[in-house]
Amino acid sequence: MTPDREPAGLESSAPIFAALGDATRLKLVARLCQGGPQSIARLTRGTPLTRQGITKHLRVLADAGLVRGRRLGRESRWELEPHQLIVAHRYLDLISKRWDVALRRLQKLVEEGSV
Amino acid sequence: MTPDREPAGLESSAPIFAALGDATRLKLVARLCQGGPQSIARLTRGTPLTRQGITKHLRVLADAGLVRGRRLGRESRWELEPHQLIVAHRYLDLISKRWDVALRRLQKLVEEGSV
DNA sequence: TTAATATGCAACCATTGGGTTGCGCATGGT
DNA sequence: ACCATGCGCAACCCAATGGTTGCATATTAA
Q1: End-to-end CA gap in chain A
Q2: Does the nearest atom of strand D lie within 7 Å of B46's Cβ?
Q3: Exposed site from A66, A77, B57, B103, fewest CB < 10 Å?
Q4: A41 vs A75: CA distance, rounded Å
């Protein structure tokens, strides 16, 4: 299945990075990470943004699978969904390692005077 | 210096993730990673985009410090700059670990019946 | 010298994105 | 019953992004 030669989830990683590519959202992730599950109103407190603004950001994070929210009474509680974080982490790991390999290969070529 | 209580590079990480948050740019990174330093014309081959499009993406990556290009003769050669990749990688590592800690703490509270 | 290759720069366009406001609707507390 | 709290939805606005085309410029090759 998926007989791709691609780095195992190239297409699937982009949306995750895109979701993390905003300072406000990164802060939200950090807050959820440290403060545990929280309501939107609480997450809004301490930011210069509107509740609606925060809501939009949360939705973006949710669409990327980084966060999940469910309704509890009159508030909606949001929490981290660490799986996609792992995916992104693994991807960066992969890239870094490949680059190391490429560097070593290049180094070897230079030493052999083949270039 | 920088007596921040922030997760060590929150603000600085967002632009990196943003730069990686595009399928085309992720592919560029992957190609540079495997194929080594390449010219724009070569990087353009095999994509449905224009050379100018690729150029723009390369600039975005460069602004995020992920890539570096210099002029060699009539072509400009671009290569990976892995340091920022490491930074992003470390950041994800940090977040993941914090989440683990938070989970364990929560688990302990539940066991103690404090909640 | 002439032609082909590899870029850069600028203008332009359509779409997305971050952010707001206004309103209506549940739910919880008193 | 009443009011405050917490949300969701929709419309709207402006700036940024992804992508193109057209043209000018430098370099290599014949």
Answers
A1: 39
A2: no
A3: B103
A4: 8
Q: How many CB atoms lie within 10 A of CB A59?
A: 12
Question: CB of A56 under 7 A from strand C?
Answer: yes
Give pairs for B83-88: CB < 8 Å, separation 24+: B84/B16, B85/A92, B85/A95, B85/A96, B85/A99, B85/B16, B86/A96, B87/B9, B87/B12, B87/B13, B87/B16, B88/A92, B88/B13, B88/B16, B88/B17, B88/B20
The residue among A11, A13, A26 with the most chain B CBs within 10 A of its CB, best to mutate, is A26
- Which residue positions in chain A have pLDDT lower than 50? 1-7, 114-115
Q: In the structure, what pLDDT confidence band is assigned to residue B12 with cuts at 50, 70 and 90?
A: confident
Each residue of B15-24: pLDDT tens digit? Answer: 999 999 999 9
